[in-house]
Amino acid sequence: MIDALTPAEWQALNLSLRVSFWATLCSLPIGVFTAYALARWTFPGKAIVNGLVHLPLVLPPVVTGYMLLITFGPRGPIGSVLEAIGLPVAFRWSGAALAAAIMAFPLMVRAIRLSIEAVDPKLEQAAATLGASRAWVFATVTLPLVMPGILAGTILAFAKAMGEFGATITFVSNIPGQTQTLPTAIYAFLQIPGGEGAALRLVVIAVVVSMGALLVSEWVARRLAARVGS
Amino acid sequence: MSLSVALRHSFADFKLDVAFDSPLGVTALFGRSGAGKTSVINAVSGLLRPDAGRVVVGETVLFDSENGLDLPVHRRRVGYVFQDARLFPHLSVRGNLGYGARFAGGVDPVKFARVVEMLGIGALLDRRPAALSGGEKQRVAIGRALLARPRLLLLDEPLAALDDARKAEVVPFLERLRDEADLPILYVSHSVGEVARLANTVVVIEAGRVVRAGPTVEVLADPAAVPSLGLREAGALLNATVIGHHADGLSEVATSGGPLILPHVDAPPGTRLRIRIAAQDVILSIARPVGLSALNIVPVQIVSLRDGNGPGVMVQLRAGDDLLLARVTRRSATDLGLVPGLDCHAIVKTVAVSGADVMTLPANR
Q1: Which terminus of chain A is more solvent-facing, meaning fewer CB atoms within 10 Å of its CB: N or C?
Q2: Measured between CA atoms, how close is B201 to chain A, in angstroms?
Q3: Over residues A24-41, mean pLDDT
Q4: What CA–CA distances, in Å, run from A125 to B29, B44, B61?
Q5: Tens digit of pLDDT for each residue in A131-187?
Q6: B280 SS3 class
Q7: What whole-number distance in Å separates Cα of residue B68 and Cα of residue B46?
Q8: If we measure between CA atoms, which residue out of A217, A58, A229 comes closest to residue A150?
């Protein structure tokens, strides 16, 4: 039943991949930093930071989307600044990426944090006694050992970004070619009488992409785990 | 280059207050678990920041609370061998060995080869730590510390996590380290046997305080130190030289107090030895006994007697230039009229001296 994809389907798939890619890539360094801070540091307000990170996980996505709209919208405090410097995000694919990144962030941080907590600080101490500064310890001991966790967090975040719906449609709407990702396209087709066939094709595409990502991540994770000797 | 340590630190449940000097060679920090030994070397390495104190290696001040000086761990260049090895699981043995060198100007291939040879780990270089035995891990950990060009070495009970067979495998390498390393080595241990075997100097720590410090030979021969070392473990060290090997499998060694017959010693004539003779294996006799199965009868003079808590007395004896300890009952001491200055005979069964009690010393000491 899958012939060549129609241009509209291509557009939705392409946009979904682009949105998820940039959402994941840009939140990765912040995610690793946040996970490290939550796993290893004690600082005032840690509970609040932890709560803020997890908020998108527990809030209705439409609430997150609405909060993004009033903050990053054309008249919002941050949105107006971005507008002024020529980087508007509202109703753009970049806005969809922002929404996806924020919705996926807690999942990414949780996975990475768990793997950082599993690294024995005694190994980091040993590295320090051998002459490695904090940055070197992180780069040569901590990071290689948490690589499987970072990969897991990345894949999870990517999958979440691919599937993000509520916050995206609230924040950037559902504009074909601009902000219409796979899920919002499926939703749009289901609103049209006779659109079930098109929706089903998109569903199959979504399943294939997600399954492929999972298989690849499993394979890479197994190789990494073998490398760190666990 | 020597190490000078003075530390004070309050923990929740006890106070650490120690000061000692450690010359070149191995200084043992001896004490029961919980006495504060590991805290001392953690403070020397910078992993623990003490409330007050001063740590100096050679000319380099690592820590000085009065002048607010606290060198960070990675700049102290202390080679720390942990009880649990702590090899990096994601690096090969080679990668582990070279880890510290990159922060100290790169791997010196000559030194790398020498350390690998000394520790006998040449065949392991491409393996992962997960594929090593406990003894092999510990040898690699020692090599890793040595190759980071340390100012001093810290060994935290490197044998404690190993079974006897693995211990026996690592000890000869530690002895080579003692003889070949030209830096101060702090060796944490709660085993008198290890201390006797490996340490030139011993610092006895009890409940966070130094109760005794000095050359190992002197401390082990001091009856006053016996309560800290443990009654059963007490025993003095004799210096000896191999004279020859007899056809019946026994070896004869010369000591300042006269010749001794020992079970076979695997060393050529002329080799210098140190022999540990447990205090409870020494019998005292006023007259020179005859018709005795024990082969060693050494003329000695009583230096001092010291009462213990139990029914025993620890007797310090002079045998030539060396000191011996004998543990006898108070009843025997009274019956025989043992007093300082009395000449008598120390009897030592040949078979009471085990291979673990005989240590080979390098020719130049």
Answers
A1: N
A2: 24
A3: 94
A4: 21, 14, 21
A5: 999 999 999 999 999 998 898 899 889 988 998 999 999 999 888 888 899 999 999
A6: helix
A7: 14
A8: A217
Closest to A20 (Cα-Cα) out of A148, A212, A219, A220 = A212
Q: Can you give the pLDDT of all 365 residues of chain B as single tens digits?
A: 789 999 999 998 889 999 999 888 899 999 988 888 999 999 999 999 999 999 999 889 999 999 999 999 999 999 999 999 999 999 999 999 999 988 988 888 999 999 999 888 999 999 999 999 988 999 999 999 999 999 999 999 988 888 888 888 888 888 888 888 888 999 999 888 889 989 999 999 999 999 999 999 999 999 888 888 888 888 899 999 999 999 999 999 999 999 999 999 988 999 999 999 999 999 999 999 888 888 999 999 999 999 877 888 999 999 999 999 999 999 999 999 999 999 999 999 999 988 888 888 877 54
Which range marks the domain in which residue A28 is found? Answer: 7-227
Say how far apart CA A42 and CA B336 lie, in whole Å: 69
Domains: count for chain A:
1
Q: Do A131 and B104 count as a contact with CB atoms less than 8 A apart?
A: yes
Segment 57-116 of chain B within 8 Å of chain A by CB = 72-80, 82, 84, 86, 88-90, 99-100, 103-104
CATH code of the domain containing A31: 1.10.3720.10
Tell me how far CA of residue A124 lies from CA of A139, B75, B87, B137, in angstroms: 11, 15, 10, 17
**pLDDT over threshold 80, residue A228:** no
A230–B89 C-beta distance less than 8 A: yes
Give a yes or no: residue A2 inside a domain: no
Rounded to an integer, what distance in angstroms lies between the CA atom of residue A8 and that of residue A185?
A: 9
- Kindly state whether residue A192 falls inside one of the protein's structural domains: yes
Q: Which of B48, B86, B142 to mutate to test the interface with A (most CBs of A within 10 A)?
A: B86
Distance, CA of B52 to CA of B5 (rounded, Å): 11
A&B contacts, CB < 8 Å: 73
Phi, psi (5° rounding) for residue B121? Answer: -115, 20
Query: Would A1 be classed as within a structural domain?
Result: no
Among B331, B329, B323, smallest CA distance to B298 is for: B323
Say how far apart CA B364 and CA B344 lie, in whole Å.
Answer: 34
Report the alpha-carbon distance of residue B200 to residue B94 in Å, rounded.
Answer: 31
Predicted complex ipTM:
0.83
Q: Which of B20, B24, B19 is nearest to B9 (CA)?
A: B19
For residue A197, what are its two tokens? 């066939």
Q: Give, in order, the Cα–Cα distances in Å from A228 to each of A142, A148, B213, B342.
A: 11, 9, 44, 67
Domains and CATH numbers, chain B: 3-220 (3.40.50.300), 235-361 (2.40.50.100)
- Look at B74 and A131 and tell me if their CB atoms are within 8 Å: yes
> Which chain B residues contact residue A132 at CB under 8 A?
74, 99-100, 103
Answer whether residue A67 is part of any domain: yes
